[in-house]
Amino acid sequence: MSENPRALIGDILNYARDKKGVDIQHVFKKNYDIEAFHSEVEEDLRQSAEKDIGKDQLSVETIFAYKVYTQLVFFFACTINEIQNGPICPVHQKLVGQLTNEDVVLTFNWDTLMDRALQECGRWNIDNGYGFTPIEVFRDGWVAPTLARPASAPKLIKLHGSTNWITAHPALNHASGQPYLPQRAPSDVVRVFEYATKPYSTYAGQYMSGYQPFSLGYYPPNILSDLGESVEEGHLLVRARMESPFMPEGTASSEGLPSIPLIIPPVKYKSYTLFGSLFKRLWTEAENALAAADRIFVIGYSFPRTDTRTIELFKHAFVRRYSFPRVILVNPYPEAQEDLFINEFGISKAHLSVRKGYFDLSFSKGW
User: Fold this and answer.
1) Distance in angstroms (rounded) separating the CA atoms of residues 164 and 157
2) What percent of the chain has a predicted confidence (pLDDT) above 70?
């Protein structure tokens, strides 16, 4: 994707050159910690925006940092879409086959491997399987969701968003330098993407074909039912797009409000509140599930110390409990997680099982 002329990466390259001293020819060949890289960009944006408070307009530094920040969001999403764009994952299929309507899947990942496996089994649907009802679902066009939920469907709660969740492309408030959603609908309104078999309206008409359901090209479909923010009387809202000589001319429509995948990037200060009450509701539902579960499987998640909100989530859930759950850790390097559950979460060794290995076809719910 770094060599795809439709992908916007120019500001990422310039940032790496100017801030990191890296030759732009080698930016995507370096062994970066991408979370640290994105967090550095986010910190630059935050500090620059604070300096702009009270000024008549945003500084060049703030605008540049914001463009780098959003280009990284798109790049994260498109990289995952490229990876997951293939046959349904048999490992996820096997796990889905063992789930019931009493099970809850919590994930901090943005990929749609579990989503697609759940949909394929026929006991879950995208319209209402995420713990909220989207305002629209994209099926070769935006349509209203189906409200009926299969009786045997487990819940899938995605605590950091998803590559197929769609929202309006954020803009920067000129007075505060803070991002906001330039849409008329409430900020917690979400649209979800299921499939596209024909061109759709998108940014600069840059539709990309060849993707399986739940995956899409670099640019998601534009929002057609929301005209975007209104302006005060006597003012005019102008949108402009600078054409790039290196980007092929788009052939699809560009009608509608530009959109972006709704994901929470792996930065230090995560922007949950940008999306209103959406993530507050999802995290509350996740805590309730952890507080009530008889068995908790922790597959692959390593509880990074910087992700303090996740650690607090488990602590708050376990404090509410009257009995220990059985906890099963599945991780090739589980030692740190085992110590965390025993010494910080208060789970006794008798209630903790460890499988030192990868999540693969040998995984069994009954293990």
Assistant:
1) 14
2) 98
